[in-house]
Design goal:
The chain is about 80% helix and about 0% strand. It is mainly alpha-helical and about 200 residues long. Helix 4 runs antiparallel to helix 9 and helix 8 (about 105-130) runs parallel beside helix 10 (about 170-195). It has 10 helices and no strands.
């Protein structure tokens, strides 16, 4: 919620051009140093595999389902708080009239942003189960996050931060299928790691 409320300061700083409004609501620096780390920490902190469930069901697929459920629940809660925070900011700053013509593009860009966050959440949990170390998993994903942010700020294609790119429509046409493919690969890897890991 606090991350979303930081939009208020960004609206004051960026002025009211279309691109300034998009940058205020989807502030990539805030997303890089606050939103993504909060998601990663939340996913890692709430990861608690119930091994007895796997023993009762005689399959480790139940552990896979538990992980997907937890990552998805945290992801949805963060979307909800971010949405509430942004609605509060729009109400406080009385900028709904300015944002009304940008609602469709904000929606598509937000979907891209949250798809990126879901990839980060699934990646961090997969790395944690592989390395058996939460700190290593966090830093690997945080470095990937930072590298993607750096590519975006230097006007290169960055995949995870392309939701703020001026030519978003063209990038999203390729970026969304790539991220969905990454999600499928991560789910397959997660299942393999769960099957191979000694609990």
């Amino acid at each position: 919620m606090l991350i979303a409320l930081s939009t208020y300061a960004n609206l004051q700083l960026n002025g009211y051009s279309d691109y300034g409004l998009l940058n205020a609501v989807l502030a990539r620096f805030t997303i890089c140093i606050a939103l993504v780390p909060t998601l990663l920490i939340s996913v890692l902190a709430t990861t608690n595999l119930r091994i007895n469930d796997a023993l009762r069901c005689q399959t480790r697929k139940i552990l896979f389902m538990q992980i997907i459920y937890r990552v998805t629940l945290i992801w949805l809660l963060m979307i909800l708080f971010w949405l509430i925070g942004n609605i509060l900011v729009v109400g406080l700053t009385n900028t709904f009239g300015l944002l009304s013509h940008l609602l469709v593009t904000l929606l598509f860009r937000s979907v891209y942003l949250w798809l990126s966050c879901y990839v980060f959440g699934l990646l961090v949990i997969t790395l944690y189960l592989y390395f058996k170390n939460k700190i290593v998993a966090f830093f690997i994903v945080f470095i990937i996050n930072g590298a993607s942010f750096s590519l975006n700020t230097s006007s290169h294609v960055s995949l995870f931060y392309d939701f703020i790119a001026p030519n978003f429509a063209k990038i999203a046409f390729a970026g969304i299928p790539i991220m969905l493919g990454i999600l499928c690969i991560l789910m397959a890897l997660l299942m393999v790691v769960i099957e191979k890991r000694d609990f």
